[in-house]
Design brief:
With 130 residues, the chain is an all-alpha fold. Helix content is 77%, strand content 0%. The chain has one domain (11-128). It has helices spanning 8-12, 14-44, 53-83, 89-101, 106-115, 119-128. The longest helix has 31 residues, at 14-44.
């Protein structure tokens, strides 16, 4: 098994918390962009964005931050779930499906409902004076 030399201070530091917040917001914005672009396609009657190269470029530019943010947040929240989440096993098992099946929104939901409320984050914030 691959063991990454990542310690707890990397996952719960103030910098990591800010990065994960930005990533979670980018993931939610990406989901909103996907829904809005699909709704715009349906409203216009077009079958794809390839009809207009400018609209295709605009949607791609709006999606890239969300793609990167979702990737970073997914890896971080899975690592937190496996290693540092000290919740009851039933609560952890509940979050397995959203983390695994809802790639775009599952890690963002986990970030807001579990990561930010965890005891490890509270202790890290007390130590850093936040």
């Amino acid at each position: 098994m691959l063991y990454l030399p990542i310690n707890k201070s990397w996952i719960v530091s103030a910098t990591a918390q800010r990065i994960y917040l930005v990533c979670a917001l980018a993931a939610i914005a990406m989901f909103g962009t996907l829904v809005a672009s699909r709704a715009a396609l349906n409203a216009s009657g077009a079958t794809s964005l390839a009809v207009s190269s400018i609209s295709l470029l605009a949607v791609k530019l709006l999606l890239w931050p969300g793609i990167l943010g979702t990737g970073i947040l997914t890896v971080a929240m899975w690592y937190f779930w496996f290693t540092f989440d000290d919740s009851h096993w039933l609560r952890k098992s509940f979050w397995f499906l959203p983390l695994y099946c809802l790639i775009a929104l599952g890690p963002a939901f986990y970030y807001f409902w579990v990561y930010r409320r965890s005891r490890a984050i509270g202790q890290a914030n007390q130590r850093s004076g936040l």
